[in-house]
Design a protein that fits this description.
The chain has 3 helices and 6 strands; from the N terminus they run E-E-H-H-E-E-E-E-H. By secondary structure, the chain is an alpha+beta fold.
Amino acid sequence: MAAPTELLPASGFFESGEHLFPVRVYYEDTDLSGVVYHANFLRYMERARSDMLRVAGIDQRAALEEGLGNYAVVEVDIRYRAPARLDDALTVRSHVTAVSPARCVIAQSVQRGETLLTQGSVTVAFVDPAGRPRRQPAQWVERFRSLAPGIA
């Protein structure tokens, strides 16, 4: 069998308006006790959010390169429920819970199988290149609303 011409990282997929993103726990993710260091759950969630946007057709890189702006995290609420350990296969589940012209709220959880490990909510604001709040592209707002009908 021939090698693929381009090997791409996993980006996850949408299922019923929710983005599912696979993560493997590596040695570098753990502390001395072999448990995932708490801040690494935020890293997993960030990767999942970035890929959720990419899969949804929201091109953050193009917006940045065109000088429109980018998202900045303005609030994080997180609760740790159970540990993850070396070599665990995890799933980060993400879905939009609210969207406004300049902000988006994304609920996220990290699971090992059916076991909930961490859950949280992240609010991002769209900012211009100088860091001032601005309206996010209208097509992005519409895309979020199409992914999660009935959101505020």
